[in-house]
Prior knowledge:
Layout: E1 2-3, E2 8-14, E3 17-21, E4 24-28, H1 30-33, H2 36-43, E5 47-54, E6 60-67, E7 80-83, H3 84-91, E8 96-101, E9 106-113, E10 116-124, H4 125-130
Parallel strand pairs: 3-7
Antiparallel strand pairs: 1-2, 2-3, 4-6, 5-6, 8-9, 9-10
Amino acid sequence: MTTTPLFTATPMVRGRRVFLAGIDWLPVTLRAGKNVKSEARRRGADRVVSYRYRDSQKNPQWVMGLVNWAKLALPKGCKDGYALALLIARQLKGSGYAIIAIDKTHYGFISSIDGVLINDVVGDKAGSATGANLPDSAPAVA
């Protein structure tokens, strides 16, 4: 698992593509949502992914995932990065969760409610079985 001082992410490298699990997701104001790259740089990240959803009152909300790509120690030739949680949450068809094997010792836990990403965390087998590595509150949505 790769840990950076500000942002954490666990890469899964498949060819030249990198799928990132355990991204730090932060809510963004609508004003900052219009220019997420500048907001990400201001917070110290060199890569950003964002998505928009509507809350229960049908108001638009923005969330951005921040990554320090240079600190991931990826093999040469890796250029394309994808947020694994967003790919999986779309497949959950509204609400649900998925536990996936990242490698032989780490697992990713992704959950969504009404299509909104709630959790994107990475832990080991013992933590996944007991929930010890899961946060007290959802990291994605405030």
